[in-house]
Give the backbone structure.
Amino acid sequence: MSRMRIAFDLSFTHTEGKWASPGSWVGADYPDLGMFTELAMAAERGGVDMLFFGDGVGIPDTWQGSMDAAIEYGIQWPRQDMSPFIAAMAQATSHIGFGLTYSSTYMHPFYVARLLNSLDHVTGGRIAFNVVASGRVSDAANYGLDALPDHDGRYERMEEFVHVCRALWDSVEPDAIVRDRATGRFADPAKVHRVDHDGPYFKVAGPLPSVPSPQGHPVLVQAGASPRGIAASAAFADVVFGMGGHLPSQVSHRERLDAALVAAGRDPADVGILWAIQVLVAATEAEAKSRKDQMAQMLPLDAVGTYLSYNSGFDFSTLPASFALAEVAEAIAAAQATQAGFVQRLIAQRGSDATMTRAEFFDEGWRWATGYEQTIAGTAEQVADELEQQFAATGERGGFMICNPLSMPGTLNDVIGLLMPELRRRGLVREHYAGTTLRDNLLGR
């Protein structure tokens, strides 16, 4: 029987109003290390496979050309570099893995390869690298760019970036270090190799001046859902991060990824998708639904507009009273912004020829910005029923990336205390960790 892998996405536990919601921390504020360490230990006790941290380096300023609303309402900011936090969390745990995000659009592969090698040592082989092709203008501005690079070009750079990282991780063979005290010979030169990469985007000599890490390569995660993004996933991803909440879109993503994997000469059975979902689990259905209703009050219009505009790369404050979804999608594509997001989900649901009023758009938009649309609320049995159905419909490969819809640590403690035992009772998740590395636990069959 195939078993689900379960990860927690902790990227936004403190943004979009969650910091003030019932069940949130009292007496500690982001980025208090104790908050993350406590959650990591609880998640490991619950058998969670990975804690995941997305990233972005700009404060959203697409909405009305200003970052004021993002600052006022805490939309997608503040964001820390989570690498030192992960190093600390790893010392309090022994099995759970950690997913870390860096941008292939702006970062250099030598720096990232060396950093992740070190983190894999510190964690004992529990690091995943979420490789992203950045699609947000405010992020680009912090790296000296006036506009986003070409959409497909970002994925070409990503593929070269990963190629260089892999070459660097392989540049020192696993048995290169001999440490012969009798002869004073530390390593075998025949097993340390230059890379000498000279490509369109990067020139790197190598080798990596590091000892091979426990996993050799960190687990590679990628989230592209556009045709070019799926091709990149098929080229190198060990596991894919996909958008949940709309089963027909999930089935389509799985089918398109499988076709791309076959075209790339890879076995589709080897690459799972972790579907991003939100869950609210409670002892009774009524309690869970009541918590979900609280989400409607989390964000005012400016905050919703800020969230949607930042993540789509288009200023939705400029929308006319009525418009066609296809026109907005074309404008987003012309700006080289993300081609898989809220507007694309609306098109999947309504069709590209559908028209909407501005009021209808923002009425749907708050559901997306808060995660209301993809939040499954109910008892542990009801939520497990839904996850089991989605898992079967999408090929029983991968599992779920559970995002935080309401508060930290309350919501996630309910997942650990209520949902995980129910999934385990059904045999849908494993009783124990399969091994000591994240590769063992997340990718092993």
About this structure: The mean pLDDT is 94. The first strand starts at residue 5 and ends at 9.
